[in-house]
Amino acid sequence: MSASNADEARSSRGMSDLGFRMMNLTFVVMDFLRPTVNRRVAGFGIKPGMTVVDYGCGPGRYATRFAQLVGDQGRVYAVDIHPLAIQYVKDRAAAQGLANVTPVLATGYDSGLPDALADMTFALDMFHGILDPPALLAELRRITKPDGVLILDDGHQPRAETKRKLAASGLWWIEEESADHLQCRPA
């Protein structure tokens, strides 16, 4: 594979395999030293039987917790552009005995999921890295039910930048704001 083809392949999945493994290791250490996933998830309002999409799921640290909350009657779609993310989610769900998690390898911003599927869609700690926010926000809107919710956090960008990108899309309005995230509804 030529250098330019390798660069193109790497950009289509967001980061190198080594970068992904290092990110996962960082999460493992963070979750050991200061576990926050359960605290964060408790405030999202996930109910049994819901359909949830974890878009940009990474290694699945939120997706598997979502799956526990939606229960056997619910479903979690763990979406990512990186093949290793999909493998990590499969392994993590299997280790926890969670049959209600469906890993989905996205192509670009296209998840391939049906329209109006999700009661709740999550984009956690990834929005800062999005090169085409209007395309992502349109995909999230497409897969979220008309009465559904988007939970979006800033990642590593200022809140004002997140709000600017949301407003520019015209697809979402902010229903509620916390220090941790924005809760949005389809416009």
Description:
This protein is α/β, with parallel strands linked by helices and 187 residues long. It has one domain (3-186): Vaccinia Virus protein VP39 (Rossmann fold). It contains 7 helices and 7 strands. It has helices at residues 3-12, 17-33, 37-42, 63-70, 83-95, 133-143, 159-169, and strands spanning 51-55, 75-80, 101-105, 118-123, 144-152, 172-177, 182-186. Strands 3-2-1-4-5-7-6 form a 7-stranded mixed beta sheet, with helices on both faces. It is globular and about 40 Å long. 38% of the residues are buried. Residues 1-13 have low confidence and may be disordered.
What is the fold-level CATH name, i.e. the topology?
A: Rossmann fold
CATH C-level class is Alpha Beta
In the predicted model, the low-confidence regions spanning at least 5 consecutive residues are 1-13
Helix percent reads 40-55%
Q: Provide the number of structural domains.
A: 1
Looking at the overall shape, the CATH architecture is 3-Layer(aba) Sandwich
Can you identify the CATH superfamily?
A: Vaccinia Virus protein VP39
The tally of beta strands, per DSSP, is 7
Strand order of the largest sheet: 3-2-1-4-5-7-6
Query: Biggest β-sheet, characterized?
Result: 7 strands, mixed
Helical stretch count?
7
- SSE sequence, one letter per element: HHHEHEHEEHEHEE
Cα(first) to Cα(last) distance is 44 Å
Principal-axis shape equals globular
Radius of gyration: 16 Å
